[in-house]
Hints:
The complex is a heterodimer of chains A (610) and B (246). With 610 residues, chain A is of the alpha/beta class. Chain A is built from 19 helices and 20 strands. Chain A is globular and about 75 Å long. Chain B is of the alpha+beta class and 246 residues long. Chain B folds into two domains: 2-101, Beta-grasp domain (Ubiquitin-like (UB roll)), CATH 3.10.20; 104-244, Fumarate Reductase Iron-sulfur Protein, Chain B, domain 2 (Orthogonal Bundle). Chain B has helices at residues 31-41, 104-112, 131-140, 148-152, 154-157, 168-178, 188-192, 205-209, 216-233, 235-244, and strands at residues 2-12, 15-25, 61-64, 67-70, 85-88, 95-97, 100-101. In chain B, the strands form two sheets. Chain B has a five-stranded mixed sheet. Chain B has a two-stranded antiparallel sheet with strand order 6-7. In chain B, a hairpin with a 2-residue loop joins strand 3 and strand 4. The radius of gyration of chain B is 21 Å and the shape is elongated. The chains are: A alpha/beta (610), B alpha+beta (246). Chains A and B meet through helix 3, helix 4, helix 11, helix 14 and helix 16 of A and helix 1, helix 2 and helix 3 of B.
Amino acid sequence: MLNVSEIQTFEHDVLVIGAGGAGLRAAIECSARGLSTGLVCKSLLGKAHTVMAEGGVAAALGNVDRRDNWKVHFRDTMRGGKFLNQWRMAELHARESPDRVRELEEWGAVFDRTKDGLISQRNFGGHRYPRLAHVGDRTGLEIIRTLQDHAVHKGFGIYMECTALDLHLDGGRIAGVLGYWRESGRFVLFRTRAVILATGGGGRAWRITSNSWEYTGDGTAMAYEAGAELMDLEFTQFHPTGMVWPPSVRGILVTEGVRGDGGVLLDSRKERFMFRYIPEKFAAETAATEEEANRWLAGDKTARRPPELLTRDVVARAITQEVNEGRGSPHGGVYLDIASRLPAEAIKKKLPSMYHQFKELAEVDITRQSMEVGPTLHYFMGGVRVDSDTQMSTVPGLFAAGECAAGMHGANRLGGNSLSDLLVFGRLAGIGAEQYVKGLGAAPRIDEEQVRAAVRRATAPLNRDAGANPYVVHDDLQGVMGRYVGIVRTEAELLAALKELDRLKRDAAGVKASGASQYNAAWHEALDLRSLLITAEAVTRAALMRQESRGAHTRLDFFGEREEWQKVNVIVRKGKNGQMETRAETRPEPPRGLAAIAHASIEDLEAGRV
Amino acid sequence: MSERHFRIWRGTAAGGSFGEHRIDVDEGMVVLDVLHRIQARQASDLAIRWNCKAGKCGSCSMEINGRPRLACMTRMNLFTDEETITVQPLKAFPVIRDLVTDVSWNFDQNKRIPPFRPGPKGPDGQYRMRQEDVDRVQEFRKCIECYLCQNVCHVLRDQSRKDAFVGPRFMIRLASLEMHPLDTADRIPAVRKEFGSGLCNITRCCTEVCPEHIEITDNGIIPLKERVVDRFYDPLLWLGRKLFGR
């Protein structure tokens, strides 16, 4: 029998799982507050998915347009989220993000500058004013590197290429985490009083995704297995512009910054089709003609915004419809044109990564040719349900921040609100964890039998004589999710998905990884399958329950937003019998002050009347 | 679709050999796609380090037909149809398994670099920097830490002087701090002594392999060397600058 005391063990007050922007910011906060802190990175430090964020970080600094303030940012966020956001989270985010951005500058970040030397800000979908602090189109890299270089001098434990597998509880509270080292395949045990999950989303359950390999829903699944509630998982954001050709790069992100800087979407007849898709609610604030949209771009403050900058859910659906109705590009997307809108040198300066990406991967020169783009699974609005102020989940001692947490973005996230989310809620999760740890009495204890069971489960794919190929099962799952749980959904398709997922769960339970445990990609794949399947099932069940179309969740059989569904969130949890349960939970009444801001006219907000 | 021939190094620090693979390749594929296909169909436990598959994270560095490259940005149409593609791990770092190397030495170097230390904010509580004053620093901050430059640096690769020189990546990081308009720390003595700027003999191999096209040698290392020379070999000039500004 495995002797647990022989497993390498570390002890911390707080263990942060995930080393993207949210995890790094949370660990920095915990460490600054004197907690013994550990940071678990699935990859090497500095490689997490944050590195791929392109366009910018949203914060109402008011450097480019002085009319901007937190209230307008809050209003934009709530409208973008179709009023399903947790009101308090959206408020905290809008109020605190300017300080978090300025703090990065104090830590060495070098954002692009305005003419008078301040942090410059760019336009983005759904944001009323130029609001995204940025560094060309590589803002995520700047943020992760700044946090990383700041963090390495703080003296906390950083565990690289280490994958967390299970949360361990003592009387329902967090007691520890079991993981394994990629390099050696050996197990590692963290005894800890609190855990902050910052594991991102689960986009790898789909084939066409902008997500990197790590994005297998680990935090969502670990929290679920530990009994935590999940929320809003039906809202999966399809970013409107991913690459569509060549096939092997299908899904790689094309930043919204292209449209923010004037890029336009065209159908096969070279028509700006977005003018035909302006939702009623946004008509008053959207340009009616190309002429007006161009004036807005030139800086005319009386003109309204171009329809290409409508929220992502709207643009992604419009592109899908254009393609379905036969007006797409040769490889099944639409055209995104910046070449005819900006001089070549300006494109290279403002969008250098996009220029290289297309040049090197698709042999397209975006200063001369149009790009072909289409929707790609990009972001999970849903995840672990947390308290708006402390970021604690429904499991004591378990916190979540960033993409793996639910609530901040409601039914649809605005571009740029993710990088700011990471910073604001990463920090708040650190503060929440400190409060929790200080109030905790005796250190929780890990149940050794549970650890042994977890190790047995994890090593099973290596020990089996034969079984399914884990790569094939993953590929199968991606096919199922792409086919049945896409941008537009129906009950029949979602039920078909559940049936397929049942089959895939049986396949996954019997996969075989050949070879030893050292840096064995097949074994890693086999272990990730559990997280992917839990996440995929949670998305599917939540999508089945929500009988309306709102934000990123579109049901062909339930057209349009339904009043009664604005009043509830869909909650997923593990039932007593081990089956996944869903329920619709009524939301509390919105705080009056915040509701007044969210529903105010833009004129009243700007004039300070609200 | 066409069938291509791959030779992939398999093994550990204790030794290894090349595995031969014939595999179908589709239009538009990059080398990393082919490696994934080999993993899925022929060698399930093949160790590869990768992450974003979009040239942004710098994880999938390896040597492809003798040249250090990011596998995710190396298109198959770079090679002729008959060409055998040989894939090896980075040579300058110890092998963990197959194509994965132990690059932890680089993380240790980063920790040794004295951190950013900004001066006071302006009277309005803001920092101000002009775009033209940060262009150069932004060039250096494009670095994705793929360590291809470290891998080809003669001092690290051929002379094994990791004890004496931090390598191009960290010269660039030092330069990005030294040229940061807000920074007040002085790292020039350390650039010379602890970080070994004198060991670089400007062969520009690092610049050639940089996937971000950073002018590592001309814009980063040479200006740092000049600052060292000014300080240590022309102290009067340095003192004059210190006293009377630039």
